Automatic annotation (TrEMBL):
Signal sequence bounds: none
UniProt-listed Enzyme Commission number(s): 2.7.13.3
This protein's name: Sensor histidine kinase
Transmembrane helix keyword on record: yes
Pfam annotation, one family: His_kinase
Domain spans labelled Signal transduction histidine kinase internal region: 157-236
Keyword annotations of the record: Kinase, Membrane, Transferase, Transmembrane, Transmembrane helix
TM stretches of this protein: 12-32, 52-69, 76-97, 117-136
Organism: Sphingobacterium anhuiense
InterPro entries: Bact_2-comp_sensor_kinase, HATPase_C_sf, Sig_transdc_His_kin_internal
One annotated GO molecular function: protein histidine kinase activity
Lineage summary: Bacteria, Pseudomonadati, Bacteroidota, Sphingobacteriia, Sphingobacteriales
Top-level taxon in the UniProt lineage: Bacteria
């Protein structure tokens, strides 16, 4: 559709150029011949014939160069085209005017042919250069668009790949927990299987959505937390604090689940007492802030466990979506680990 529109615009441009040449050349030649004392009838006929020939040559050049961009070392071809088409315009006009100009006027006509040739050459060469410059600009814009489309496709592919890696990462942990519960707590294992099914079904529905509202993301997070509560029982407490106005803000799909999973892993593993994971969401200066806090054992490095893939993948996703590396931050204070993300809200 866009290519068709571009072609229509180019055809309109060629038509405008040809009509401008027709009108401008007629006015210029008529004025010069009138001042030189040619009869009015001859002046009009000669001006019309030469203007029409110039318009036809202009159209021929425009259509010939419509899709041609000469290399820098082949600019001489443009001059040759202008040279040939100027000769054609002069020869065509001369063949026609000989049928109505008196012999004495033909001699004068032949005397001024070199000057007409120079004028025609300058005009037609200028038209050729203009068309070539237009094609170069059009090709430049087309190349930029193709590059942007290619980069967008690569970005989408990388985002998709990151999400596909996150899902098995959580799935394997859940399946291991189900296996551990089958022998001792079969009812909880069955319940956890149903919850895992609901969670994965919701994940698949979000596959094609890059940004969703925070309310939907929190609902999906609740499915994940229900699974984790089966694993850890009463030891896991989740506290979510948010204002009502932030629920309609936009956030990348499934961006919170790996952060909460990271908090649970470092907050509950190797810990026997109850643990509270705090999630806080608020809006500030058109930016959604989400912070997740979890305690950890004194003397134990939060980064000592796992590969850090979750945080790395989140930072990469945020960069691909927003082009910034400062949207994910982490800090440790008094045995509390906090991971925070910022999501710009664009109108």
């Amino acid at each position: 559709m866009k290519d068709k529109l571009l072609l229509q615009n180019k055809n309109k441009l060629i038509l405008i150029i040809c009509l401008s040449i027709l009108l401008g050349y007629f006015v210029m030649q008529y004025a010069l011949m009138y001042r030189s004392g040619f009869p009015s009838e001859i002046t009009i006929k000669d001006s019309i014939i030469n203007s029409l020939m110039m318009m036809l040559c202009c159209y021929a050049i425009s259509t010939t160069l419509n899709y041609y961009i000469p290399k820098p070392n082949q600019i001489w071809k443009v001059l040759i085209i202008g040279f040939i088409m100027s000769g054609i315009s002069i020869l065509g006009s001369r063949l026609v005017v000989q049928y109505y100009l008196p012999k004495e006027h033909l001699k004068i006509y032949d005397l001024i042919i070199p000057y007409r040739y120079i004028v025609n050459f300058l005009i037609l060469t200028s038209v050729a250069i203009f068309i070539i410059v237009w094609n170069i600009q059009e090709e430049y814009i087309s190349n930029i668009k193709r590059k942007q489309d290619s980069e967008n496709q690569l970005r989408e592919a990388e985002l998709y790949n990151l999400r596909q890696q996150l899902q098995p990462h959580f799935l394997f942990n859940s399946l291991n927990s189900i296996i551990a519960l089958i022998g001792s707590k079969p009812d909880e294992a069955r319940n956890m299987t149903f919850q895992l099914s609901d969670f994965l079904r919701g994940t698949l529905r979000k596959e094609n959505n890059q940004l969703i509202v925070l309310q939907e993301e929190l609902n999906h997070l609740e499915l994940y937390l229900d699974i984790e509560k089966v694993r850890f029982g009463h030891r896991l407490n989740i506290h979510i604090d948010h204002d009502q106005d932030v629920l309609s803000t936009k956030i990348p799909a499934m961006i919170l689940q790996p952060l909460v999973e990271n908090a649970i892993k470092h907050g509950l593993y190797n810990v026997t007492e109850n643990v509270t994971i705090s999630i806080k969401c608020f809006l500030d200066n058109k930016t959604l802030h989400v912070s997740i806090e979890n305690p950890f054992e004194p003397g134990e490095s939060v980064q000592s466990k796992g590969t850090g893939f979750g945080l790395t993948s989140i930072q990469r996703r945020l960069f691909l979506l927003f082009g910034r590396n400062d949207l994910l931050t982490t800090q440790t204070e008094q045995n509390i680990f906090t991971s925070s993300i910022k999501i710009p809200q664009y109108d």
